[in-house]
């Protein structure tokens, strides 16, 4: 029986690939425009498999995961198997291609998950390995890898970031109450999960309504992850953001982008710019920012994944234009009441073309996630 049809080997391959995927999560949101890749090098000298090297794409995108794992393995890489969550690169960057480095180090077998759409790499990474006599097994846990690399894949293939719509709904289907600032809907465990999601994204986006109403910070406030806050983006066509907003005072630590009609209020824009706000000029039609063009601009700034966090009007615009790729809904047990703002979406009101990926609980709150299938 050949290795690739050996069920024991297949189970082992899935186990180590799952470990490589967990490892690569460590730098999600910190390697843009590069994807965060994981590599695990495993050898078996007869006493069972042993991990001899691990690597994850470094902050900023270089060195690549394979470089780090090979450095750790040293001579032990000879004859070993490398598990890589993305096809190893085939192009010369600051270092030789990873595919070449794996072969030169004497890796005997490479197990890959996702293929790389980058035209410099696509198919060529695996080809280099095979030509060098390395056995290659592709597409192990490919769906999981593609899900984790969704932002990178979206930016490479569609030249825009992956858009996640995140909302918290009360039991009566509200997302907040007008004129009451931030209304607690979910509990502490769900809050922590949201902060972890933020840490893995490149940016969080809200509308000016939410910025004025809630005066949020939109940062990651989890012990040990305080420096993992992604950029913040406010849709504010008329430049209504007050200079004393908490979003502005946090600029020293985390960038703030305002998407606006640059001529709407030049004085105000200059004042905000003096405080470090970065403006993105956008087309405005009927008072609404042209979202596809904005997403192009965000991709050009290097962003691969953004989370849309509010409010209802912004969520509806992204949904109406078919620009939502992933939906994450939290459900709190309490009611907001008649003065509440209706959610534009609900568990029983998911637009067509989405598939439920997972469902779970965070303490007293429910959670479900859907991804676009087309
Ligand atoms: C790998 N291992 O860990 C990552 C890869 O700008 P460069 O030279 O760093 O190349 C960026 C490309 O490298 C990126 O588009 C993707 O194709 C690949 N990313 N490849 O072998 C890694 N992060
Ligand atoms: Zn590489």
From TrEMBL:
<feature type="binding site">
    <location>
        <position position="98"/>
    </location>
    <ligand>
        <name>Zn(2+)</name>
    </ligand>
</feature>
<feature type="binding site">
    <location>
        <position position="214"/>
    </location>
    <ligand>
        <name>NADP(+)</name>
    </ligand>
</feature>
<keyword id="KW-0511">Multifunctional enzyme</keyword>
<feature type="binding site">
    <location>
        <position position="64"/>
    </location>
    <ligand>
        <name>Zn(2+)</name>
    </ligand>
</feature>
<dbReference type="Pfam" id="PF00383">
    <property type="entry name" value="dCMP_cyt_deam_1"/>
</dbReference>
<dbReference type="InterPro" id="IPR024072">
    <property type="entry name" value="DHFR-like_dom_sf"/>
</dbReference>
<feature type="binding site">
    <location>
        <position position="168"/>
    </location>
    <ligand>
        <name>NADP(+)</name>
    </ligand>
</feature>
<comment type="function">
    <text>Converts 2,5-diamino-6-(ribosylamino)-4(3h)-pyrimidinone 5'-phosphate into 5-amino-6-(ribosylamino)-2,4(1h,3h)-pyrimidinedione 5'-phosphate.</text>
</comment>
<feature type="binding site">
    <location>
        <position position="237"/>
    </location>
    <ligand>
        <name>NADP(+)</name>
    </ligand>
</feature>
<feature type="binding site">
    <location>
        <position position="221"/>
    </location>
    <ligand>
        <name>NADP(+)</name>
    </ligand>
</feature>
<dbReference type="GO" id="GO:0008703">
    <property type="term" value="F:5-amino-6-(5-phosphoribosylamino)uracil reductase activity"/>
</dbReference>
<dbReference type="InterPro" id="IPR016192">
    <property type="entry name" value="APOBEC/CMP_deaminase_Zn-bd"/>
</dbReference>
<feature type="binding site">
    <location>
        <position position="309"/>
    </location>
    <ligand>
        <name>substrate</name>
    </ligand>
</feature>
<comment type="similarity">
    <text>In the C-terminal section; belongs to the HTP reductase family.</text>
</comment>
<dbReference type="GO" id="GO:0008835">
    <property type="term" value="F:diaminohydroxyphosphoribosylaminopyrimidine deaminase activity"/>
</dbReference>
<feature type="active site" description="Proton donor">
    <location>
        <position position="66"/>
    </location>
</feature>
<dbReference type="InterPro" id="IPR016193">
    <property type="entry name" value="Cytidine_deaminase-like"/>
</dbReference>
<dbReference type="Pfam" id="PF01872">
    <property type="entry name" value="RibD_C"/>
</dbReference>
<feature type="binding site">
    <location>
        <position position="89"/>
    </location>
    <ligand>
        <name>Zn(2+)</name>
    </ligand>
</feature>
<dbReference type="GO" id="GO:0008270">
    <property type="term" value="F:zinc ion binding"/>
</dbReference>
<feature type="binding site">
    <location>
        <position position="198"/>
    </location>
    <ligand>
        <name>substrate</name>
    </ligand>
</feature>
<protein>
    <recommendedName>
        <fullName>Riboflavin biosynthesis protein RibD</fullName>
        <ecNumber>3.5.4.26</ecNumber>
        <ecNumber>1.1.1.193</ecNumber>
    </recommendedName>
</protein>
<comment type="pathway">
    <text>Cofactor biosynthesis; riboflavin biosynthesis; 5-amino-6-(D-ribitylamino)uracil from GTP: step 3/4.</text>
</comment>
<dbReference type="GO" id="GO:0009231">
    <property type="term" value="P:riboflavin biosynthetic process"/>
</dbReference>
<keyword id="KW-0378">Hydrolase</keyword>
<feature type="binding site">
    <location>
        <begin position="311"/>
        <end position="317"/>
    </location>
    <ligand>
        <name>NADP(+)</name>
    </ligand>
</feature>
<keyword id="KW-0521">NADP</keyword>
<feature type="binding site">
    <location>
        <position position="210"/>
    </location>
    <ligand>
        <name>NADP(+)</name>
    </ligand>
</feature>
<feature type="domain" description="CMP/dCMP-type deaminase">
    <location>
        <begin position="11"/>
        <end position="136"/>
    </location>
</feature>
<keyword id="KW-0862">Zinc</keyword>
<comment type="similarity">
    <text>In the N-terminal section; belongs to the cytidine and deoxycytidylate deaminase family.</text>
</comment>
<feature type="binding site">
    <location>
        <position position="218"/>
    </location>
    <ligand>
        <name>substrate</name>
    </ligand>
</feature>
<keyword id="KW-0686">Riboflavin biosynthesis</keyword>
<dbReference type="InterPro" id="IPR050765">
    <property type="entry name" value="Riboflavin_Biosynth_HTPR"/>
</dbReference>
<dbReference type="InterPro" id="IPR002734">
    <property type="entry name" value="RibDG_C"/>
</dbReference>
<dbReference type="InterPro" id="IPR004794">
    <property type="entry name" value="Eubact_RibD"/>
</dbReference>
<keyword id="KW-0560">Oxidoreductase</keyword>
<comment type="pathway">
    <text>Cofactor biosynthesis; riboflavin biosynthesis; 5-amino-6-(D-ribitylamino)uracil from GTP: step 2/4.</text>
</comment>
<keyword id="KW-0479">Metal-binding</keyword>
<dbReference type="InterPro" id="IPR002125">
    <property type="entry name" value="CMP_dCMP_dom"/>
</dbReference>
